[in-house]
Amino acid sequence: MFQFDRKLILTLAAVILMLGIAVIRKAAPDEETNKVVNQARTNTTQQAQSTQSPASQPANFHAPDAAQAEIKLDEKILTFTSQEELDLFLEKIAAADQSKIRLIGVVDKLLSARVRFISIDELKKVAGDAKQDANYLVTPPPMPPAGEIQPDALGFGQDYLSWLGIEGDNSSWGSGVTVAVLDSGLSYHPAIGDNVQRIAIMPLTEGSTEHQHGTAVSSIIVGQSEITPGIAPAAELMSLRVANENGLSTAYHIAEGIITAVDSGADIINISMGTYGDSDILANAVDYAASNDVLIVAASGNNGLDHAAYPAAYPSVTSVGAIDANAQHLLFSNSDPSLDFVAPGYQLNAAWSTDKLIPFTGTSAAAPVLTSIIAATMSLYQVDAFQAQEIVSSYANDGGLAGPNEQYGNGIPAMDRVLNGNQAGRYDPAVSGYAVVEQGAANTPSLIQVNIQNRGTETLINTPISINAAGNERIVNITSLAPGEVFSYEAQVLTPADGTYLPITTTIADPEIDARLDNNSLSANILINQLEE
């Protein structure tokens, strides 16, 4: 029996593990080169070996302050322009004073090395012309505090599949698709089972267990329970633990995880983690995935900023923001001009620990929703991940301001449209959302854009809608609306004097034939930021 614990909190204080510098016995340069380099590569290889040992207890994580990216102060990532330069560096560091500088790891395919040092002079001696980057800390996006979620936000619970237009049996969705989840690992959970390939990139402290963030993310993709349903339950899950027991990772470990996932046969990589620091090793790993036709989907971040975290901010990565069950952009969800999609990200039922469930909130939840929709589309259409993403994008539901925008990207994935996009005779008018397009001072007019989308396959003719804003009702008729197109109406409203939310409801008169009646009405409370008089 699952225990639903709504008091579990996903964010607590950070515990940053300060690792001491081990002294390696001095030896002749050639012997030392081989020993140091081989040991670094062995560490990398051993950490990437599959393991089947499950864990069950939750730990805590802390996300980086959005104002500045956190780094490991005693580490650098060195990136070289050629294999010859990397080999020369490896010879130099093997001969260096190991009490002052130490090689921690090498990613040959990225021509990069991770070093820990206490002497900047020693670093200069061995680094040569290598590009030096900080090793940025990477964490799951922080759980947003209550003040950063609008008061009328509506949760999904276990209903996110039906909300996405998934009805009936989806047990075969994702078949033949390998989805890699780069996160904190995966504990055994009855909603997921143990038919998972586990790869450990980041070691855990002896006696500790995985943080449960990765378990929650994975359950959205391959969950087998009615109350934690997976969207692509037949997908092959590859769980790569790139974070420690506190949910803390680094750019180096994320990059190493990407390389390992690609080389292990992943079709899609989900990363519900991020940092606000850009680095060559992470950018190069993302490029490696793209060059091998592996799609990366990543969370945009939960800091309410106007730009996404990395790796979501990279152009070749598919970035995902979060909405609630009213299709509202959640205030904590990072916006970005290059945002690709938004997806359900508020209080989704998700697995946690050995037998618990949590209401999972954030872009961390939204990313695996999109990942699994792409995986499902791959199996249904027998296409690759990039082609599947194009299909999902072409049938995405509009949201917020009409057309692609920085809060909704290209829209909201809709599996009913993916499944029925070629079905003639399908009628589906929908209220797609609202946006403030002109704001006034208190007690002066503001303009709210009201949007209606034709989500069917036939042109809509003479469709009446009712718009009620703060008790003021108006009737508007849409004479014609082609499939996929959006009709926008700008409703003039009086800006509230007290800064409260303005209630608005739009209703489409029910047509005789309608594929989905549940999207014919939408109510929202809109906060209009008043202009100074």
From TrEMBL:
The protein, known as: S8 family serine peptidase
Query: Which lineage?
Result: Bacteria, Pseudomonadati, Verrucomicrobiota, Verrucomicrobiia, Verrucomicrobiales
Q: Where is the Peptidase S8/S53 domain?
A: 174-411
Mind listing the GO molecular function terms for this protein? Answer: serine-type endopeptidase activity
- Which residues constitute the catalytic centre? 183, 213, 364
Specify the species. Persicirhabdus sediminis
Q: Which GO terms describe its biological process?
A: proteolysis
User: Is Protease given among the entry's keywords?
Assistant: yes
Keyword check for Hydrolase, yes or no: yes
State the source organism's domain of life: Bacteria
Q: Which InterPro entries match?
A: Peptidase_S8/S53_dom, Peptidase_S8/S53_dom_sf, Peptidase_S8_Asp-AS, Peptidase_S8_His-AS, Peptidase_S8_subtilisin-like, Peptidase_S8_subtilisin-rel
Pfam families on file: Peptidase_S8 (PF00082)
Q: Which UniProt keywords apply?
A: Hydrolase, Protease, Serine protease
Per the similarity annotation, which family is this? Belongs to the peptidase S8 family.
